Amino acid sequence: MDTIEVSNLNRQFLFRKCHVGQSKASVAREAVLKFRPDMKIAAHHANVKDPEFGVDFFKQFNVVLNGLDNLDARRHVNRLCLAAGVPLVESGTTGYLGQVTVHVKGETECYECQTKPAPKTYPVCTITSTPSKFVHCIVWAKELLFAKLFGDRSQANDLNAQSNDSGGSTKDDADVFDVHEDEIYEDYGRRIFDHVFGYNIETALRNPETWKKRGAPTPKYIKDILPLAENEENGISNNSSIEEREQSLSAMASLGLKNPQDIWNIVDNARIFLKTLQIFFERRKQEMGSLTFDKDDQLAVEFVTAAANIRASSFGIQMHSLFEAKGIAGNIVHAIATTNAIIAGLIVLETTKLLRNDSKNYRMTYCLQHPSRKMLLMPVEPFEPNRSCYVCSRTPVSLEVNTQQAKLKDIIEKAVKAKLGVNSPLIMHGSTLLFESGDDIEEDVAAHYAQNLEKTLAEFPVPITNGVILTVEDYQQEFLCSINIKHRDDFDEESDGIVLSGEVPTVASGSDDHADESGEKLPIATTEAGDGSDDVEIITADSLVTSGTKRKLGVDITCNDDNSGNTKQNTTLTTNTVAIAGGKRKLDDNENDVILIDEDPGNRKKTRLE
Fold first, then answer.
1. DSSP 485
2. What was the pLDDT predicted at 550?
3. Rounded to an integer, what distance in angstroms lies between the CA atom of residue 183 and that of residue 581?
4. SS3 category, 537
């Protein structure tokens, strides 16, 4: 269900400005048909987790190319490919880093044989339209609003599209961010406040479909938060008589707010928002039009914090202190178009090998930021399936938990869904069904399951205690896993009372890690390559995989060619169909069937398949 954003336009050639707001899959299909009218392309504007995209759907393909922007959906597609016996080409980028990996059931490790750090990526559609976390608001304030007000206004961003749709806020919406003639900066600040926190949100509310399954935001207007009279009393007026505060380049200092770890209320955030605008335009006017966010720029951090908090308040998200906001904003890294292009090319190379059954030349290729032995692309041979993988090898896992205190719902939410990646779990103890999710369950059965969720493990008629084995199943994923329960009395705060251990593959264990022949760490990138749906991402130290077992380096990353001097396999591409989840566009040569799926990570309806 992904739609085209303004920020998508500079990283591909299928979308144009007129396509903003339309389905990526549908527009991509139409664009490709213009230069390849013989292609057969089916576009689906839907959720990849919907029941119609089950195992039978995946069985119709020769290969699946994954371009999803969240770990949960990637796991889901990996399991469906395993169940359908269809090869999967996975890919990701993180700034200058990237990789393409090949996963063939029974031949190579699956996507989940190696533990992936939880990705900190945020689709632009979420940032601009449906934020659910404070970091979404930070990204919006820093990358969109700050850039629009103080940076190069000739550069289009997603606030342009919103402004053009927000009829009624000004006489000329195209100039909404321009200072009008004879307009004092206080009036300008109040007008911008009303536009981005009021009119734009009212515009978003015009589409009721968006808010069916999520809380609708509340428009914020400055007159309701900070009336003009109160504004002047608090020293925000241009006529303030306190000379020292007027000379200050900090809105916090100017307004008497001293502790950066305090969480400002909505009034203080509004005051900071207006004051930072005033100082920027009055004291730093020579920088206007060329400013970029710098976490060491106190005034910039104050503005982003206030704007993010006001937006968070509109969407029912908890507000944060300036200290916390600065830490989040300082870790945002842009996606790199060149990296996406390189990874997209590598995807095509590996897909070609798969369609030719050229298993000897499969490579997992890593794109590095700095050369290693004069190489920026590091190809390695795929590993065999990890015998400890609970997904493709169905090895039991161990779950340490306090069986006297932990409830069944804790096990499902914190372990089965969050850590094992199961979407629609069925939980059994022996032959006893403890819980099942789905929309087609009878009311009395659903009520019984609801009661079970509130029981501690030890409270069940047949107590779930140390040594008991639970079975977890997901019909749609055709996933099956055994969990060995181990009682534990005490846990540290970080574990949250749940510890998966035993045979769960972990990066830190040193087994099957991704490294080159010298033992150098190879980066695992977490966002999709080539699709461009992620404008920005948050990078932490966990984004790198620790070094471990060495992999044998491949000689090259391409198929043998006629001039190589080697024997070339005379393999002909037969009738092939390619599925691209997440909206990527890769084509083969004969049957020319392509399936495009737009996936919305926010829509996670759970359904049981009979």
1. E
2. 36
3. 49
4. strand
Does pLDDT of 214 surpass 50? yes
pTM metric for this prediction: 0.57
Q: How far apart are CA 70 and CA 605, in angstroms?
A: 16
**Distances 72 to 26, 107, 118, 397, 603 between C-alpha atoms, Å:** 24, 23, 9, 19, 12
State the catalytic residues: 125
Taking only the tens place, the pLDDT of each residue in 482-501 is: 898 999 888 876 567 888 77
409: tokens are 């719902």
Query: Rounded to a whole number, what is the largest CA-CA distance in the chain?
Result: 85
If DSSP codes are grouped into helix, strand and coil, which group holds residue 502? coil
Supply 109's token pair.
Answer: 């490790």
pLDDT in tens, 230-271: 555 454 444 444 445 444 578 998 888 989 889 999 999 999
Please give the Cα distance from 200 to 433 (Å, whole number).
48
Residue type, 497: G
One DSSP character per residue, 30-96 reads HHHHHH-TT-EEEEEES-TTSGGGSHHHHHT-SEEEE--SSHHHHHHHHHHHHHHT--EEEEEEETT
Sheet strands side by side (includes 534-538): 121-123, 534-538, 332-334
pLDDT of amino acid 8 = 73
Q: Are strands 432-436 and 332-334 parallel, antiparallel or unpaired?
A: unpaired
Which pair of tokens denotes residue 103?
A: 């996963």
Helices 266-283 + 185-194 axis angle, to 10 = 130
